[in-house]
Amino acid sequence: MSPSGAELLRQVKSQIDEVDPSEVHELIDEGVAIVDVRESEEFAAGHLPGAKHVSRSYLESRIEGVVPDRATQVILYCASGNRSAYAARTLQEELGYEHVRSMTGGITLWKDRGYEVDVPRALTSEQRERYSRHLLIPEIGVEGQQKLLDAKVLLLGAGGLGSPTALYLAAAGVGTLGIVDDDVVDLSNLQRQVIHSTDRIGVPKVDSAEESIRELNPDVNVVKYQTRIDASNIMEIIAGYDVIVDGVDNFPTRYLLNDASVRLKIPVVSASILGFDGQLSVFKPYEGPCYRCLFREPPPAELAPSCGANGVLGVLPGTMGLLQATEVVKLILGIGEPAIGRLLLYDALGATLTEVKVHRDPDCPICSRDPEEITDEELGVFPDYEAFCAAAG
Amino acid sequence: MATIKIPPVLRASVGGEKEVGATGENVGEVLRALAASHPATESQLFSAEGELNRYVNVYLNDEDVRVLEGLDTAVGESDTLVILPAMAGGS
After folding, report:
1. Which of A127, A131, A73, A125 is nearest to A103 (CA)?
2. Facing residue for B89 by CB, picked from A193, A312, A347
3. Interface ipTM
4. pLDDT above 50 (res A61)
5. Chain B residues within 8 A of A321 when measuring between CB atoms
6. How much is the pTM?
């Protein structure tokens, strides 16, 4: 005769090892894998600190992704200790895990004992819908989306590169976007600066950008800096941001930004454009080279034309700006291989993307030293600075 | 003959070409051959003292010649040299 449910549970519990919550409490942070086998909604309502989630219904197919090594000590728990008992038997008997235990009394007893529970912040139902295509990607999911919502990204310039970057970062749900730009929207900008619009000609670019971002995603907090970044304000403006997007149109500001961001250890996703050509690299202080390691000094003004003087294919800042946005998202999520130590060269006419290696310069005047040694007076300084600026007008 | 990739700011000095061929045993010789056949590039590549300008990066294939042997780095027939000055356009 088949056993009753209660008898089956008793049989299963006699075949597995159980562990009391007090012992589990001692084992947290000791390299033990703690796995919550309840349903997603139960896990989201609160779980043991550091617990991984594999619902019992997906146990066989997903446990290896969470606990790849069968010799690992595994503690399973559920609400009261029954579902985790069945799950423990499955891991032990059918999948060959060697050290599996089920926590007696589940999270209910754990809470009764007064132990800590992690309650993840939940996305609203509107956010779940808005970011659903992110939530479907395992590398992002709720946790990654929360990282994006918590992230603070500073855009230097709401121009050619800044426009597409800001729009896509806003759409992706980057929670805080700082925008630095002292300019107003001009008709000649609209061939490429897609965050602005014809009816906003003459409007400050920070205000115009804010309006487009709000229309796209009201989740985003826009912080406006209607100013030109310089040595007197850069440290104050960039402090506290997680990533900086460099789309500025002149060398002095690029060097200034580099030096200040190295000092504050903030990664910079840098791109530049001219004509039909674009360059991109990620400068992550002390992990990879900095801008000065790549370009020891700027070219003379006659070899460093700006887009205004030489023109740029309208689509090109879109391409390069979105490569920047992609790198920003990767840095925030901690996924993939950011373009650190590599300079990507995009040739729009040839439709080619090539890359060259960028090394840390052991003699770099900035990043070969400790950040606290870099003084205010040194920020953005390079040989013939005065002459360069005079020639550039 | 090695291939030299010409950056946008130097293309006017080589008749608008994106790539030019030049012969030489090492990086220095190849660049001097380029300067000899396209004199307008000389002052952009080399200082008055004959050194490579500090604002010009040169890569042998994908490697910065500064971490190789500099201008003395040997260049093969099928190698590509990339000349790369910094660009700052963004707006």
Report:
1. A73
2. A312
3. 0.93
4. yes
5. none
6. 0.78
